[in-house]
Structures are given as C-alpha cells and as structure tokens.
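Amino Acid Chain and Its Fold in Token Form
===========================================
Purpose: to set a sequence beside its fold so the mapping can be learned.
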Amino acid sequence: MTAQVWSWPGALMGAAVGFGLLLAYRGLPLRRRVDLNDRIAPYVRDSPRPSRLLTSSGVDLGVHHVLQPALHRLGAVVDQVLGGASSVRRRLERAGQPTDVEGFRAQQALWGVLAGTAGTVLASLRWLSNGTSLVGALAVVGLSVGGGVIARDQALTRAARRREERILAEFPSVAEMLALAVAAGEGAAAALDRVARLSTGELSGELERCLADARAGASLPEALQGMADRTGISSLARFVDGIVVAVERGTPLADVMRAQAQDAREASKQQLIEEGGKREIAMMVPVVFLVLPVTILFAVYPGLSELRLSL
C-alpha cells in the first residue's frame, strides 16, 4: 500500500524533472535557429545600433527573460482556445493599459501556470493523505489552470470598470473647468491644454493624449472622437459630440460648454441617486435575514418557555 501511495508523486516528480531537462536542452545555443526576421532585422532597423562599449558586459539571466519565450507560446495557445482578441484590446484601452494582446495572453498563461502549480501541490497532498483517484487529481489541476486564466481576464475587466468609475467621478469637475476656460476667451485646444496641465487623474491623462494626437497631425475633432472611443463612456461621448459640433459649425463654444457641464453635473447626481438606491436595497439584506429573525426570536422565546413550564 505504501509503494502504491508513493508511486504517483514519484512519477509526477520524475516527469517534472524530465520536462525541465527537455526545456534546458531545447534552450541550448546549439539548438537555437536563426529565423528570417532575425536575419533581416539589422538591415531594416530605423535607429543605429549603439556602441558595444556603452552596453553592459554582463549577461542578463533574469527569470523574466528566461520564461518569456515559453510564456508567449503558451499565450498563443490560450488565444487560440479563448479567442476574442478584439474584446481584450478594447478592455485594455478602457483600463488605460498598453494594447498588447500577446503580452496579456502571456500574463494569462503565467497565471494559469501558477494556479496549476498550486493545484498540483494540493492534489499531491490529497493523494498522500486520502489516496484519491488520479482522475480527480487531474481534474483539480485542470480546474486550477482554467481558474487562473479566467481570474486574469476578470482582473482586467475589474480594472477597466474601476478606471471608468474614476473618469466619471472626475468628469463633472473637468467639464466645469473647460467651460470656465472657454468663457474666459480661450479656444477649444487652449482650454483643453490648460485643463490638462492644471488637473490630475485619468481624464486629464486622456486629455493629454488627445492633445498629443492633435499635435501629431490629427484634427481636434478626430482626436476628441478618439478619446471618446477609447474610454467608451456614454456621457463623455455626448460631451465630445457637443464640442465637435460646435467646432465644426461655428456655434458659440462657451454656451455649449456650459450646457454640457450642467448635463455632466446632472448625470453625476443621477448616478449618485441610483447608487444610493442600490446600497439601500443591499442594506436590507442583513436587516431582513439577521436582525429581524433575532428580534422575533427574542420576542417569542419567553412565551415558549412559559408554555413549557405550564405544561
């Protein structure tokens, strides 16, 4: 019985050691093949190669550089299984992160590997203690890997939602500042520049990116529309549409800005009222399921005890 209990952990450890030796063999310099991209890269590079005298002579053997190729391969597998690259790119933009779908898939693969390692340790401990079946252990490992991959995806969704909430919280104040700057006599671009320099936060960063796009050659309406598309917030999109229409048709911008700022303030108040209603309903849960039963119990228990004594 002892030999059977220790056979599977020993087999798993032997398989892990063999897999590690195989990876080390495949990573040897003699096994590396130079592809076509590496051959033509020195001839099509835009910037000149720096001098070797200015570079460090040490060899970087960090874990990140060692595991990066394997993680990118696993990320490609995850992308083929899950798909939805456009949705991931969209959420990365909404979260304010670089739109690197391949890098995000590599992060998902890393989370899956870490969760799978934890699941393997848990399954091995259960095997040693209870002697569970091999199918159950493999199921635990597979569920752990899938849970790690899904957890990274959900973390991105939560990051995008939190950033949208911060932008919505900053939006009324930024709209008021833009209205004041335009009413003082500045143009749309100058007002955006002033507000971006004087304010801090997620929305000011989006304004700076919008101004950078405008300075790079895009027109101001196109840059503003790009900001609205990146954030994906309906109230901000309506604000941008009002500015774009005023700039293109020559409508007095100060009046439009004041009206848009008032609409943003009203939308913020409406959101606070809706959030308060949701929290009020959530507060009823402990009252109904915890406080009310205890109150009824304290009210009924003395009468029940008296009935028992009388009987």
Observations:
- Residues 253-310 form the longest helix (58 residues).
- The chain has eleven helices and no strands.
